[in-house]
Amino acid sequence: MSLPPRPRRGQMSEAFSAAVFLSVSGGLQDAYTYLARGEVFANAQTGNIVLLSQHLFRWDLPGTLRYFFPLASFALGVAAAEGIRCRCRDMVRFHWRQWVLLAEILLLLLVGFFPASMNLPANAIVSFSCAMQVQAFRKVDGCAFASTMCIGNLRSGVEAFCAYRRTTNREILQKAGRYFSMIVLFALGAGLGGVCIPLLGKRTIWLSALFLTGSFGLMFLREEREDSQTAEIS
């Protein structure tokens, strides 16, 4: 008589509880750079490209650079996260995604000290940080998601809800619920940023670092999984 499979202990970096902190932080970062740092998007690089092109076609070099540097920094952030993954993925004590979070936290703490005269490097650093987060955290409970933007989550959530309407499969409905929850959490982070900027000013970004610290701490725990085989290390 075969025994049922014993629960496995999986890494918390893809757990919903960790994604809660990441999503709130992502929304706050975007609100921060747009409202407190000169109407530049930290995450929504499509918007930055649109605004960059508008300034470029008007031959406005300072305006073009204001949106070019966050865009270039975002690309560098993706490369940096990949570099951390390649160098640190075999470490035992720290998961490589924790190193990404630690780098993000330190960078965001630094940005909080930058005055208004340093909006350009501040936006570049926040975009760099966001890109590392986008690249490192791409799944929640096995489903692809983004913690710093909403368009992919909205598409996937609506797709899952339509699939539920066809199949009445409750697991698919729960999947849709997770996507919509991520959007709500992102919006909460953005709203929190808007409320706190008049009170805390440029230091509002430290709240984002605080939320990332919550996710960093959770990753020292292990999540029980019911899979019969050990989950593949990602």
Question: What report would you give on this structure?
Answer:
It is a single chain. The protein is mainly alpha-helical and 234 residues long. The chain has a domain at 12-140 and 188-220. It contains eight helices and four strands, in the order βαααααββαααβ. It has helices at 16-36, 45-57, 61-88, 96-111, 119-136, 151-167, 170-200, 205-218; strands at residues 8-11, 139-140, 143-144, 222-225. The strands form two sheets. The protein has a two-stranded antiparallel sheet. A hairpin with a 2-residue loop joins β2 and β3. The model is unreliable at 1-9 and 225-234 (pLDDT under 50).
How would you summarize this macromolecular structure in one to three sentences?
The chain has 234 residues and is mainly alpha-helical.
Q: What is the count of DSSP helices, taking H or I runs of 4+ residues?
A: 8
Could you report the average pLDDT, rounded to the nearest whole number? 85
Portion of residues within helices: 55-70%
The radius of gyration over CA amounts to 19 Å
Total count of strands? 4
Class from secondary-structure proportions: mainly alpha
Largest sheet: 2 strands, antiparallel
**Shape by Cα distribution:** globular
Low-confidence stretches: 1-9, 225-234
List the helices and strands and how they pair.
Layout: E1 8-11, H1 16-36, H2 45-57, H3 61-88, H4 96-111, H5 119-136, E2 139-140, E3 143-144, H6 151-167, H7 170-200, H8 205-218, E4 222-225
Antiparallel strand pairs: 1-4, 2-3
Helix pairs in contact: 1-5, 1-7, 1-8, 2-3, 3-4, 3-5, 4-5, 4-8, 6-7
